[in-house]
Amino acid sequence: MRAIKRYDRRGFTLVELMIVVAIIGVLAALAIYGVRRYLATAKTSEAKNTIGAIARGAAAAYERETAASQILGGGDTSAAASHELCDSAAAVPGFIPQGLKYQPNSAALQDFNAGTATQGWTCLKFTISQPIYYQYHYLRGANNPHAALAGAPTVGTGLNGFEASAIGDIDGDASAFSGFARGGTITNGELALATQVFVNNEFE
Questions:
Q1: Which of 159, 78, 80, 153 is nearest to 119 (CA)?
Q2: Which of 8, 49, 158, 183 is the most exposed place for a label (fewest CB within 10 A)?
Q3: Which pLDDT tens digit goes with each residue over 59-110?
Q4: Which phi and psi (to 5°) does residue 124 adopt?
């Protein structure tokens, strides 16, 4: 009689199952980390782009010629046109959002609509209508004193410089803050901007 060889049906061993579970766990951890980093990067890109826009607005304002309004008598000549940086703007919002977005107030003379032809956001011709994660500043002749911006390049002496900055707390823990800044300094009548945005504690 011919013997029939049968192969035993066998499942996975406990060791094989543990290896598969471990691999899945590692992949899940990497995926979670990647998603969190992507979301944080998306938030910080808001600050970097906005700081760049504020700095460009300051540069454009400086390039515009400012002439004093005068009434001249016969034979008189007007004062020469000059270039001037915009004076400082109030911080928007007046607090640092903690992991939440702030909707700027679009009413006249509020938030990014505040200022005059020579001062603040109106002078910079800068506004934001979308919700924001960060508190934004524009200071003429000074650096933002917030600890998150310690180490930012000095903007110059007197009123011959400016700093645009952002302070954020995107994780909402109120224990650490991120800081972004870009400044400019006037030298021999020319405004030179910082080569890139200063970043401190980007993801907190």
A1: 159
A2: 8
A3: 999 988 766 677 877 888 777 667 889 999 999 999 999 989 999 999 999 9
A4: -75, -15
